[in-house]
Amino acid sequence: MSSDVSAPGGAVVARGQARTDVLTRPLRRWRSLLRLLWRAGPAHVVALGVLVVVLGLLPTAIILATGELVGALPAAVEHGLGSADGTTALLALAAVIVGWTLRAFGHNAAGYLRQVLDSAFTSTFHETIARSVLGTRGVAPLERPEVTGELAALEDAERRGQLRSTVSTMSNIAMSRLTGLSALIVLLGLRWWAPLLLASVWQLVNLSYRRASAKGVTVGISEGASEVRRSEYLRGLAVGPGAAKEVRVFGLAGWVVGQYADAWSSVLGAIWRSRRANRLLTAVVVAAILLAHGLVLLTLSRDVNRGAIGVGEVAVFVQAAVVSFSFGWLGDMQWWLTRSLDAVERVERLGSLLATTDPVRPTPPDRRRTDGAVDVRLRDVSFTYHGRSRPTLDRLNVHVAAGQSTAIVGANGAGKSTMVKLLCGLYEPDSGRVLLDGLDAEVAARGRVAVIFQDFVRYELSLRANVGFGSLTTADDDVPVDDTAVDPVAAALRDAGGAELLARLPNGWDTVLARGYDGGVDLSGGEWQRVALARALAAVRGGAGLLILDEPTANLDVRAETELFEQFLDLTRGTTTILVSHRLSSVRRADRILVVHDRRIVEDGSHQELIAQEGRYARMFALQAQRFAVEEPAAVPSGPEVVRDA
């Protein structure tokens, strides 16, 4: 029988689960944080832990030694330093000096360990995220709303820099708590209720600050969330390079600054309204602090008047009462630690969301091919994107023989790019199989498939990295970087027509392809096309047997795209190639053309065969030929015709 939370019993169960989560969630978060911290450096964690305990207890030890010194001084002055009282005073003084010395050296050592562990922890945090994201079977899991939400939150946490001091914050809080706790224990010598009263007051302070902080966070993610995003967007318009040209051309600077100021003022208004709502609680907390400390000090003064305690004990109890504040709210440190715990919890949740219960099937070593053209088969393949009801591909059957050049054409949204993603192993079909050399694509694609997408990546790295990423094994070869006879990366750039590009770069292969770096250079669209093509050719030299161009030349004119495709086919002859384009004139030279329509292959043949069939391809080709004939006249009229046209 299913549970119903709307029923009385269901409501009780839900409340019980909520209470259990309130108790167990902090433990889970701390366990996750400590697990990451231990991975960052076990030896350093142990050393810092020992120092935290020592440095946390030292202040109270110094207080006790100071009380002993103050209590022994009158008698030492009266009887001399050579007396027993003098010896007690000297030992107490030595203890105070040793305590402060140890504290100074300990803080220096702890500071060094904090820096080391903060860096290691941040690196481990990023590495954990990267392993979770890069370990998925394709890209479909990364497109789930819950995953994108966690990634956005983690990106915000990293951008705000709240993780870079996690270890420092945590160790400082631990030291303060130990100091406050030991001071409260010392106060047991005054009255049993004194430390309990002060501890209760400081916990009330903690509660009030947590409520205020939670209210501020709620305001930030609800009432003020849209204004925060709007203000950050407007700030990006003002200072970012993306909109710099239009902001200046259209004279938008004053408007952007004014809108940014209004949005940020709205955010601050929401925050201040939240803070004003906590004024009464703040007043109660302040009154409680004053009352509790007043009672403790009043009790202390009465004992002094009765002669029940000496001057040394007075010094100890007064200092202990003051130091007990370390058991209360510690300001921004607790806020940042809370944010770090939240971020670590999100990392754990992200890992759980991306963990696959369907492990990758192992590749039989005797069947895997590592070189040569790839044989491609799609058998009854159906695929539907997450959140859609209508399939993009439906029972698709295709066979591309090894070494064949094939073009895939069709209207926008017909499923061309979806086929490419399936061939690359980025998605798994809902049904059917995608096979490369007889193996499932998600297993066989790595190292055997190279692709240039329409939105190919323009890495803000060196030219050599941009080309060599096609095959890391060849990019790392220790060879002369300008000798195309032996350097596969240089040969790939040469074959792609990028020799002139290399010659004009200021630092040659080491030139960073971005203007934001010293000596960096940005490239034109055509030059980036050459670099992307070179990357694909480097992949061929590294063992890729299937090359795919998924409309990477969509921003080029028809003539430039045709020239690039023809060059690509010439350079990759003997390799299985797939060209995706919506311009039919660019793929005429392909051995075979597949026309995708209504989720299936509706026509299959060479250019001449499809034209002769007078079907969909022939009609599409005729329409595009007419349009391009109007847009690109063959000759410019001269003489009287020019005058007449003018």
Automatic annotation (TrEMBL):
<feature type="transmembrane region" description="Helical">
    <location>
        <begin position="36"/>
        <end position="66"/>
    </location>
</feature>
<dbReference type="InterPro" id="IPR003593">
    <property type="entry name" value="AAA+_ATPase"/>
</dbReference>
<feature type="transmembrane region" description="Helical">
    <location>
        <begin position="174"/>
        <end position="194"/>
    </location>
</feature>
<dbReference type="InterPro" id="IPR039421">
    <property type="entry name" value="Type_1_exporter"/>
</dbReference>
<dbReference type="GO" id="GO:0034040">
    <property type="term" value="F:ATPase-coupled lipid transmembrane transporter activity"/>
</dbReference>
<dbReference type="InterPro" id="IPR036640">
    <property type="entry name" value="ABC1_TM_sf"/>
</dbReference>
<keyword id="KW-0067">ATP-binding</keyword>
<dbReference type="GO" id="GO:0005886">
    <property type="term" value="C:plasma membrane"/>
</dbReference>
<dbReference type="GO" id="GO:0005524">
    <property type="term" value="F:ATP binding"/>
</dbReference>
<keyword id="KW-0812">Transmembrane</keyword>
<feature type="transmembrane region" description="Helical">
    <location>
        <begin position="307"/>
        <end position="330"/>
    </location>
</feature>
<keyword id="KW-1133">Transmembrane helix</keyword>
<dbReference type="GO" id="GO:0016887">
    <property type="term" value="F:ATP hydrolysis activity"/>
</dbReference>
<dbReference type="InterPro" id="IPR003439">
    <property type="entry name" value="ABC_transporter-like_ATP-bd"/>
</dbReference>
<feature type="transmembrane region" description="Helical">
    <location>
        <begin position="280"/>
        <end position="301"/>
    </location>
</feature>
<protein>
    <submittedName>
        <fullName>ATP-binding cassette subfamily B protein</fullName>
    </submittedName>
</protein>
<keyword id="KW-0472">Membrane</keyword>
<feature type="domain" description="ABC transporter">
    <location>
        <begin position="376"/>
        <end position="623"/>
    </location>
</feature>
<dbReference type="Pfam" id="PF00005">
    <property type="entry name" value="ABC_tran"/>
</dbReference>
<keyword id="KW-0547">Nucleotide-binding</keyword>
<dbReference type="InterPro" id="IPR017871">
    <property type="entry name" value="ABC_transporter-like_CS"/>
</dbReference>
<dbReference type="InterPro" id="IPR027417">
    <property type="entry name" value="P-loop_NTPase"/>
</dbReference>
<feature type="transmembrane region" description="Helical">
    <location>
        <begin position="86"/>
        <end position="105"/>
    </location>
</feature>
